[in-house]
Amino acid sequence: MNRIKVLVVDDSALMRKLLTEFLERDPQLEVVGAAPDPLVARDKIKQLSPDVLTLDVEMPRMDGLTFLENLMRLRPMPVVMVSSLTERGAETTLQALELGAVDFVTKPKIDLEAGIRQYADELTAKIKAAARARVRVVDKSGVSAIRPSPRKMLRTTERLIAIGASTGGTEAIKDVLMGMPADAPAIVIAQHIPAAFSAPFAARMDRCCAMRVCEATDGQQIVPGHVYIAPGDWHLRVVRDGARYVCRLDQSSPVNRHRPSCDVLLKSVAENAGTNAIGAILTGMGDDGARGLLAMREAGCHTIIQDEATSVVWGMPGSAFKLGAAEQVLPLPRIADALLDLCVGTPARSAA
After folding, report:
1. Contact 336, 306 (CB under 8 A)
2. Cβ(227)–Cβ(187) under 8 Å?
3. How many C-beta atoms lie closer than 10 Å to residue 15's C-beta?
4. What is the value of pTM for the model shown?
5. Which residues contact 244 (CB under 8 A, 6 or more apart)?
6. Is the pLDDT assigned to residue 158 strictly greater than 90?
7. How far is it, in rounded angstroms, from Cα 99 to Cα 320?
8. What percent of the chain has pLDDT over 70?
9. Where, by residue number, is the active site (predicted)?
10. Which of 80, 85, 169, 205 is buried deepest, with most CB atoms within 10 A?
11. Nearest-5° angle of CA 348, CA 166, CA 173?
């Protein structure tokens, strides 16, 4: 099997050296080159034709976002962003995902050499996933070519929508939310994302959607017209308080290596909302959420997964499909409308 050719772009000579050494230890990867800035990277891309690019968020000589935008317009290829755990780094990374980057990793906060092993392991896994991923095509305005569904008004106070996503999910979630009217049923979301990134992500979604979007807080009442995103490093569950739905947060052990976990959220919705809920799994690496979506379908809920053709990575939706958890398999542009249609329809019958 051909090795995945990787070009490492980072302004730190130490970082380039460490990453090259660690990535080269994996027999499936070949670091074909390293570049200290985007201008050198541009020439090396032409010379070396890498399969995947790792790109530091903060780069000298050319703004990293400008470089990424030009790259995705002229030579679309899988890019994994390397981000710092700062508010500025989070915002820049979310912009990079909007421009077409496949995924991102965050640098260790302190003691780079000691923390590089765990960091490199995560980067290695995401490089392999990126090599198989579908790179989103963006038009000249920087807007995803996958258009949001047209909005239609809906009035209901009884339904609840639960969504799980991972790799490629920040943009897939945006496309779904942009298809929702302001008075849509409440939506709860588990997206695999670091703690420093979930609040900027929620704020970003709030600015572009008709619904009100927030990072969920413990004990917060779930009401129509609002979207609740699980904070990074916290599990989000939906529980009942009389006739109301309430957010419950905890830091119990990661599930499927993730916190927040999509399985945790979806299973709680199956248990506490039953046939009043609709579940969806969007693009993502791994299998988190598959068993939770199956629990929802077995509880009588309608369930949807994103199809392979429009997914950046069809790991999570594909796993749900294999388990028989998906009632419908739909392209991303149709999911918002389908969720709304199911909200006004009759509850799903039990899969049993």
Report:
1. no
2. yes
3. 20
4. 0.89
5. 221, 222
6. no
7. 28
8. 90
9. 166, 192, 288
10. 169
11. 65
Contact 142, 69 (CB under 8 A): yes
Per-residue pLDDT reduced to its tens digit, 214-226: 999 999 999 999 9
Dihedral sign, Cα of residue 329, residue 330, residue 335, residue 337: negative
C-alpha 205/C-alpha 96 separation (Å) is 15
Which residues are known catalytic residues? 166, 192, 288
How far apart CA 162 and CA 277 sit, in angstroms, is: 7
Q: How far is CA 121 from CA 84, 148, 263, in A?
A: 17, 35, 23
Given this model, what pLDDT does residue 113 score? 67
Phi, psi (degrees; rounded to nearest 5) at 261: -110, 135
**Cα–Cα distance, 324 to 344 (Å, whole number):** 24
Q: How many CA atoms lie within 13 A of 200 on its CB side?
A: 16
Q: Which two tokens stand for residue 340?
A: 């709304």
